[in-house]
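Please review this one:
***
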Amino acid sequence: MEKRPQTLKELKDSGYKVLPVKEEMRKNLILKLKRKEELFPGIIGYEKTVIPQLVNALLAKHDFILLGLRGQAKTRILRQLSNFLDEFIPIVAGCSVNDSPYQPFCARCRRLASEIGDKLPIAWLPQEARFQEKLATPDVSIADLIGDIDPIKAAREKLDFSNEEVIHYGIIPRTNRGIFAINELPDLQPRIQVGLLNILEEKDFQIKGFPVRMPLDILVVFSANPEDYTNRGNIITPLKDRIDSQILTHYPASVEEALKITEQEAWLDRGIKIEIPEFYKQMIEGVAFAARKSEFVDQSSGVSARLSISALENVVSNIEHRSFKTGEKKLYPRVCDLYAALPSVTGKIELVYEGEQEGTGAIAANLIGKAVKEVFLSYFPPPRKPKQAADEEDYTYSEVISYFSNRHHIEISDDSPFEEYSAALHKVKGLKKLAIAHRPATSPEEESLVMEMVLEGLYQHNLIAKESFDKTCRYSDVLATMLKDVEERD
């Protein structure tokens, strides 16, 4: 490994040039663009929207804000900005504000430079130490961000309070020559936001009467949720004016993009093989898409991509749980496993008043049903009740519906052995033939899954009834179930 300069003289002799941080990032970004490198690894769905705007902002040396709803990878994007920094930069050794050895500006480093000149010791700051972030909360103070007088330091080093060296610098000066990110900016109190104005524009500030003019070399970036503008706070107009670029993030435009994100983020390596077909993953992903369209869900709050990630993990856990009970080695999902994802849905949606009246659990179950219905209709014709008796024989679902209308019912469970689960489905006359005619299966497990999806699809179209209790659900005739409910009420 090449030995790096350890003193100011060695640094000068090496010919090293210190670049401003925004110029440094611009240089490294251009190199990555020319090499056609992936700029933001793991960020999916933003290739034609957000990332080009980020590139333009960095090329223009802009401070910027990412504005978007929850779960849109804002924080992840901000943390990846450090990839555009140099691997190491030289600073004055022991400096709390990462002073450049060529032009130190804090009182301590200026004093050292005047006392020892070219013998000024140098340390090398790594890339990862040059990114700092702060979650904006109402209790954040100017002292946290910019600094304050440290009486203990003054007493310990016998310094007068008029001496600049008694200042304890906040997180922003300590991120000098790096990137500083503020998450959820509107939560920051307006009087604290005012303290950022000079940081962004004039690069100077005051600490308890000290007119400290520090030429901070820093990229300041922010994230915010549009909901916060009205519910919890606001970004003051002068600060918005000083933020050079506002970049809007968004949810995945397609189920395919959303699936890539979920598969990338979900923890699925349980040490056992669980085969999950693509159309089943689409049902899980469809829950979030259904929630983003639901009239009962508060759309101003958004529906995080974390819903799908957590839902998939819960479904896999339910399959894993079943394997411990049944001892089966070949693990495969069932439609009834989807309802194990209810805790992932109820905790991640905000309901409007009408939704709260319905109840979070009922809305979550309804969203899962809509997701199944969407995938069901992508393989099977839309179910309808035949208008005439002559239509009955040609109607796709007539044999299956007739089975239930003749007072038959079946019960299936998410913790029963596969043989029991499959046998219950195969009792329904015409169900297997209908299932494999429209969605051919490659294994008995997939065949049973498709058969169950048909029943759930018919239930979602109100052509058969479904009752759920404990970990079991019963499919039966709609009319018979209605009469049963009436009898129970009487």
Notes: The two ends are 86 Å apart (CA to CA).
